[in-house]
Amino acid sequence: MYWKRRFFENIVGTSETPHTMEISRSHGAFIYNEKGEAYLDFLSGFNVSNIGHSNPKIIEAIQNQAQHYLHTTVYGEHIQSPQIRLAQSLSNMLPESLGSCYFLSTGSEAIDAAIKLSRSYTNRSEILVCKNAYHGSTIGAESLRSDYSARNVFYPLLPGIKFIEYGNEEDLNKISIHTSAVIMECFQAEAGVRIASDAYFIKLREKCNRSDVLLIFDEIQTGMGRTGRLFAFQHTSIKPDILLLGKALGAGLPLAAVVSSSKILSSFQSNPVLAYITTFGGNPLCCAAGFAALSLILEQNLCAQAVKNETFIMKSLKHPMIKEIRGKGNFLGVELHHHINPREVIRQCYEQKLILDGFLFDDRSIRIMPPLDIAENDLRKGLEIFKSVLSSCE
Ligand code: PLP
Known about the structure:
By secondary structure, the protein is an alpha/beta fold. The protein has helices at about 1-10, 45, 55-70, 80-90, 105-120, 140, 150, 200-210, 260-265, 265-270, 285-300, 300-315, 340-350, 375-394; strands spanning about 25, 30-35, 40, 100-105, 125-130, 160-165, 180-185, 185-190, 195, 215-220, 240-245, 255-260, 320-330, 330-335, 355, 365-370. The protein contains 14 helices and 16 strands.
């Protein structure tokens, strides 16, 4: 009660009705409230805790690094082995053209940095983005958001932003020699999990190549094994020029990255000099956690595990109230039939200690995105709660 009162007095939540679950600890797929009651987290802290909450290997890596050094100077000036280890490990898993990293702290910052990078590298200003995409809340990232009601309050936003429809091949004709970059979630998350066809991606790549336009994939939600591959673009026949990572990259600590070739990223060094400076980008604690997390995903083969979980969920989640399940791996959106209110389902599941949520731009669907290494029994238990709530809402 004390903390709840202080929360309302001293903290500003993100809405007028914040969730206000009081946290005492978290572990694996569970978050514990102030009474020590366990809640099963089918959101993975919104795709941050891909390897579960407070994974002991991550804690150990953070503790080890903390004994050596924390912050020493702004990013990119000192040689810090945790950054290099993580960058090298990412580069081992990516095509040669995505061999260099520029580290930042948040996804929105990675988006802003990518906008600056593409404008400085191409010397063009137009940026194409998809409708119903969420790329973050800084003023740059906000400018990429298509829904008028949320963005008009902040006008004027960045000029030069044009919208296309995700998956619509006709719209790709808007890519031209005036375009600097196409910034796109490879698989759309907040639109309720949408995955375009491979034919679309091939045409997208061709159009970008033809006009020397940079293709930037925002994999801030889909990266780090979430979709059953380390990166969602690996499900397609194409690769981006720039890959943006965040969320699960730091396994619970704030870390994001712009990944590209050293040729493209060198614009940050020279055009102009100090084009993007950030005090905490690539913080050694965060990079140590990120390296430990990536090692764990690879050693424990968690991409394959995500595929297994997908099969299990698809098989178990049969219910007359479900219209459709979309997605891959542990990146799934469940669309309900029209007479059921997803908000009510989410509320009732929470009462039964299962944490679920919806999407920003799809009010008919519920996200199912548990940690990749969730135990099968816990996955089954959560799905049973979900189905029993759906039955009670019939
Ligand atoms: N891009 C995508 C696809 C996201 O889902 C988010 C956050 O949810 C962001 C960017 C912004 O990341 P952050 O909240 O770390 O700024």
